[in-house]
Design brief:
The strands form 3 sheets. Strands 10-11-6-2-1-12 form a 6-stranded mixed beta sheet, sandwiched between helices. It has a 3-stranded mixed beta sheet with strand order 4-3-5. It starts with a strand and ends in a 9-residue tail after the last helix. The protein has 11 helices and 12 strands. By secondary structure, the protein is an alpha/beta fold. The protein has one domain: Bira Bifunctional Protein, Domain 2 (BirA Bifunctional Protein, domain 2), CATH 3.30.930. Helix 1 packs across helix 9 and helix 4 crosses helix 8. The longest helix is centred in the middle third of the chain and has 20 residues. It is globular and about 60 Å long.
């Protein structure tokens, strides 16, 4: 009998709600009170999300974000900046079955990378799962703060260009991996919203055409969010040998998500203070 996972499509929501729900799903998963879950969602407003260790004030051009209508939000996971707009975002929470070690981390990325690759290949994309030794970065002296500018182990590429940006957070018994699958990319707006030296901006944007790609830039026919949702569901089921069942978010997950939204993801301390974000961890005691 196939292991059953939960499949959830939560539609588009604001940045704080999206991140709070991802973390709530992880924290309840840590207790064993919910099944492994694949969630798909979108963003009600364009959002620049930052890895939890990035320095917001040093890396974000807030004036440009305001001009372009872009919200700034820190993720609970690591990595570099992602502009979420015309995309499908996925998140996976599941129990950690391997001992905590660098090898276990690599294996989890590989397993989920294979599932993502299987999904995108259903759309006719020539996706490659990068091996651990391969890493593609900008050739310029200034490192890009953008996630899609770097291609590293077990990430997905098409013709050498990164097509999915993923990040992970691990607790003692569960992990969260979530990521951006762009349907279209606005490279100009991405780098306008990032704090990069003006003399290097043009070069970094040019690099972005060689290091990152969107689904509809390489697909032979238009791919909608709904089509990609279905491909993810079928791809994960096939690659992981599981059955995905549509099931609701638990009341406790909603309660915790609302709490995290107000006390963490809407706060200046979390979004602007990198040192605070680095130190902050959420403790969770089940209600009742």
């Amino acid at each position: 009998m196939l292991q059953q996972w939960r499949f959830i499509n939560t539609g588009s929501d604001d940045a704080a709600s999206n991140m709070a729900l991802d973390e709530a799903l992880l924290l309840v998963q840590e207790t064993g009170a919910a099944p492994p879950t694949l969630r798909v969602y979108g963003w009600s407003t364009p959002t620049l999300s930052l890895g939890y260790a990035q320095q917001t004030m040093q890396e974000v051009n807030f004036a440009a974000c305001q001009e372009h209508g872009v919200t700034v939000m820190r993720r609970p996971t690591g990595g570099r900046a992602v502009l979420h707009d015309q995309e499908v975002t996925y998140s996976v929470v599941l129990p950690i079955t391997l001992p905590t070690s660098p090898g276990a981390l690599t294996e989890d990325y590989r397993r989920l990378g294979m599932a993502l690759a299987t999904a995108l290949r259903r759309l006719g994309l020539a996706v490659r799962l990068e091996r651990p030794h391969r890493q593609v970065r900008s050739q310029h002296s200034v490192a890009s703060p953008a996630c899609f500018a770097a291609l590293s182990r077990y990430e997905l590429s098409v013709a050498g260009k990164k097509i999915v940006g993923s990040a992970q957070k691990r607790l003692s018994h569960a992990l969260l991996q979530h990521g951006s699958i762009p349907l279209w990319l606005d490279r100009q707006r991405l780098f306008a919203c990032l704090q990069v030296p003006p003399e290097h901006r043009t070069a970094l944007i040019q690099d972005a055409y060689t290091t990152m790609v969107a689904v509809n830039e390489v697909a032979t026919s238009p791919v909608s969010a709904a089509v990609l949702h279905n491909a993810l569901r079928l791809g994960f089921a096939a690659a992981l040998g599981i059955e995905l069942i549509e099931a609701p978010i638990l009341p406790e997950e909603w309660r915790l998500a609302r709490e995290l939204r107000q006390t963490k993801y809407l706060t200046t301390a979390w979004n602007l203070d990198g040192a605070m974000a680095w130190r902050q961890s959420t403790s969770y005691v089940p209600a009742g």
